[in-house]
Model the fold of this input.
Amino acid sequence: MLVLTYLLVKNNATAVLSGIVSGPTTTGIWTGGSGTFNPNNATLNATYTPSASELTAGIVSLTLTSTANGNCLQVVDNMQINYTIIPSVAAGTNIAVCKNNALAVLSGTVSGATTTGVWTGGTGSFNPSNAVLNPTYTPSASELAAGFTNLTLSSSNNGNCIAVTSTVQINYTTPPTSNAGLNISSCKNNPASVLTGTISGPTTSGIWTGGAGTYNPNNTALTATYTPSAGELFAGFVNLTLTSTANGNCNASSDVITIVFTNAPSVYAGADLFSCKNNANASLSGIVSGPTTTGIWAGGTGTFSPSNTSLNPTYIPSAADLTAGAITLTLTSTNNGNCFSVIDSVKINYTPSPIVNAGADITSCLNNAAAALSGTVSGATSTGVWSGGSGNYNPSNSVLTATYSPSGAELTAGFATLILTSSNNGTCLQVTDTVKIVYTTSPAVNAGSNITACKNNAASVLTGTVSGSTTTGIWTGGSGTFNPNNTALTATYTPSASEITAGFVNLILTSTNNGNCTVASDNILINFTTAPSTYAGIDLFACSNNAASILSGSVNGPTTTGIWAGGTGTFTPSNTSLNPTYIPTAAEIAAGSVKITLTSTNNGNCNQVKDSLMINFTISPFVNAGIDLSSCKNNPITSFQA
Done:
């Protein structure tokens, strides 16, 4: 028996048999293996594919036995196939490298039938070459864009082995992306800036560097608040760098943000102001500059015109502001952007307004018209000037207590209106006050018309009048008496005996309670005339039977008329005839007498004067003719008896 030995590598284990059967037969059959024969085991040149166990055993023995032997014994021949170790190729575990650190160090191994290999499959480059099992692979841009590359390590120098390959995939992971955010503009009065950094990719952590300020809560917080240093504020900017951390195999990524520190708003409310309470509207002069030029006024309880958003409004105070005496207004910047608002204040002091008092209205008498003015000016000023009259001020119209002498026109008009106006008013509006001087009628004294009084009725009723500024007066000048007193304008004056003897008296009526008027007076002359003289005549005697008596009265002096009275008889032609005939009544005759009085009439201001006479009625002769007689006509002689 001839044993043939085949050396086959396990990765190329299929063996093409080359059995030969000759002689009386040319056919045979293969046996002995647990593998498979192709096309079958009756084919002398079949291809034998070993089983796994045979590969594991590393050997298989096959027997070729002749068939169709006829009368011959079968003939057997053996062959042995030895399976040598196949090349072992390992490209290494898949690799993950960062796109920003994409060089990958390959770690291929080749063992077994060979120890060499070659790398293929990428569009990048191998350093030092692709025949080095552990080269550094640099990917192409397209591989980075694709995010991966597959590299194959194939064994080389394989002998009869089929080349063995192994593949490694290099995954290009996204590198860290650092975004420090947009550049920031921060105001110097609000410089703390909120950083909004982001880290993405294989890491989400980072660290801020580059500033001399502070980070809150710390510089590893991506959204930290950065408070700059004084030097950075002075410089006007700071550059901060956000760098990724925990990068793995990636290179760190960084981004820079610039924080620019702009100037803060500047607000100036203006210098403190002084406004007079009667001219209290104040023109404000606010200034806002820097990142904004707008502002708003506040404070006080008044109003701003045209509005409180005008930098230069007029402030109109309220009554409460004026009462308080001072207010503080604040000007606050608006539209500040990222700046804090800035405030400045101005104080408005409300000074007292001038107080002008021209004094109470004055009443001056026409006969004493010069008036002493009593003006006062206080508060913001103590000076003033008089105006409004057409008269004269003494010593001048700038003296508050000047004496004013009116013009003739003012005296005629009966009044003068004077105006006292404050002067040296400063910021105050001038204040005026008015005083009216009323020129009252001066006392008018009229003692009455001269009086003619009768010496027998010398008491005279005075009819004095006082008018104008007063209605009272006093009588003087006589040595007689006034009833009820000498202050009664219509007193009755009873002259003294010497005045009656003198025949006259001169009395003076003088006004009293004249106020500011000069006294006025008037005289009256009382002339005492002779009293009437009445003479009724001598007493008369009349016979009772002839009782009519002719009277012989006379009246002399201021009157020559009179009237008879006293009897019950009759006067013929009348009792006003000074020489009438008086016819007594029977009663008067019987009485024996009658008293007749002659009284002066038309006495004027004299008392009537009377004079009387007696008419005595004497007895008349007595005659008695006897009784009546009757005589017959034919005997008519009658005898009388005494």
Observations:
- The chain is about 5% helix and 45% strand.
- The helical segments are 52-57, 141-146, 230-235, 319-324, 408-413, 497-502, 586-591.
- Residues 15 and 48 are 5 Å apart (CA to CA).
- The first helix runs from residue 52 to 57.
